[in-house]
Write a structure and sequence with these properties.
CATH architecture: Alpha-Beta Barrel
Strand order of the largest sheet: 7-8-9-6-5-4-3-2-1-10-11-12
Structural class: alpha/beta
Order of helices and strands: EHEHEHEHHEHEHEEEEEEHHH
CATH class: Alpha Beta
Shape: globular
Number of strands: 12
Strand content: 15-25%
Number of helices: 10
CATH superfamily: Aldolase class I
Radius of gyration: 19 Å
Helix content: 25-40%
Distance between the termini: 25 Å
Largest sheet: 12 strands, mixed
């Protein structure tokens, strides 16, 4: 794909790429550290970056302020496990106060929510995504390589009690590993006020076990849903990574993030800020834009803004997972901030 035409890149106004997509969402990774070792995300022997390489809270807030001035209004805090970063409630409160930021949420494994959920709610956190890939203890131990399922359940209860909403449950479905539990999770979406989201297995795992045959597809998940009960699609948000549905007699919703088989690249409105200060336009990007060097090198906000605009202007039309020339990113999920 040809490089960006910087002569026509807008220097003011909304943050836009060369295909006309407007960036409204920023995912901010607080850390690459995690107390789980999920097989689809990271290796057992993961190595973490030195803490002084992480962006400080002041640096994170500065980037968010610059992005918010360009129309970014939705922030999601990610990791690794974001709650392992001391002061997660503090940075939540600081970002929620940034002019233009309308919503802030977090993706977490739930382990620390019993201790932090109320503080996060008071800090301004709106919703939370909790990762849970199986309801079976022994299978959980094989997937997460930790015996922490009770901690995740406690985290779910704590999120409810704290009033965080929506509560989304993220389930990565892998053929032959946990696809036999799809119906069980779907029943949760009928019985509880959760949004259960099934995620197709993506080639971002640390152990590089991903194969196309392990992808349990959206169509297969919807077929399981038809066996559970009648459902309808919620009014679609074309920029959302998930197609969302509700059972006609249910309390919650379920969604499918089909990044592999039915990508939403045409309407993507998000970028990522990694824990070490790099802008990524896509989970599957093979290039990143270093902001940390600017932030620590004395650059003014105008220079940082221009670098962000250049990075977004260069965003590609879409990933090429199913193409013969697909190049797998060097960073695994936990180093990106999924």
């Amino acid at each position: 794909m040809a490089g960006p035409d910087v002569q026509t890149m807008p220097l003011h106004g909304l943050l836009i790429d060369r295909f006309g997509r407007v960036v409204r969402k920023l995912r901010v990774s607080l850390t690459d550290r995690c107390n789980f070792r999920c097989v689809y995300c990271m290796p057992e022997d993961a190595e973490f970056m030195p803490r002084d390489e992480l962006l400080t809270f002041d640096e994170i807030e500065r980037v968010v302020r610059i992005c918010a001035a360009m129309g970014v209004d939705t922030i999601r805090l990610t990791g690794g496990e974001p709650l392992l970063r001391p002061g997660a409630a503090e940075i939540t409160a600081r970002l929620k106060r940034v002019p233009g930021v309308r919503k802030i949420s977090m993706t977490t494994n739930g382990y620390m929510l019993p201790h932090l959920a109320r503080d996060l709610k008071r800090a301004g956190l709106d919703g939370v995504n909790i990762s849970l890939d199986t309801l079976d203890r022994e299978r959980f131990k094989r997937i997460a390589r930790r015996d922490y399922i009770d901690h995740v359940y406690a985290g779910l209860r704590a999120a409810e009690e704290a009033g965080l909403a929506p509560i989304k449950i993220n389930c990565v479905v892998m053929r032959g590993v946990n696809d036999d539990e799809v119906a069980d999770f779907l029943r949760w979406a009928r019985e509880f006020p959760y949004v259960v989201r099934f995620i197709e297995f993506m080639p971002l795992d640390g152990d590089r076990i991903w194969q196309r045959r392990l992808v349990f597809t959206m169509e297969e998940i919807l077929e399981r849903a038809r066996e559970v009960g009648p459902f309808e699609e919620v009014t679609p948000d074309r920029a959302s990574p998930a197609r969302t549905f509700r059972f006609l007699d249910g309390r919650g919703e379920f969604g499918v993030i089909a990044s592999v088989t039915q990508p939403f690249c045409d309407h993507c409105d998000r970028i990522r800020l990694t824990q070490d200060g790099r802008i990524r336009n896509c989970l599957f990007a093979v290039e990143e834009t270093d902001l940390r060097a600017l932030l620590r090198g004395g650059a003014d906000d105008a220079a940082v803004e221009r670098r962000i605009r250049e990075a977004v202007w260069a965003k590609w039309a879409g990933h090429r997972i199913d193409a013969s020339d697909f190049v797998r990113p060097e960073r695994a999920m936990y180093k990106i901030g999924g």
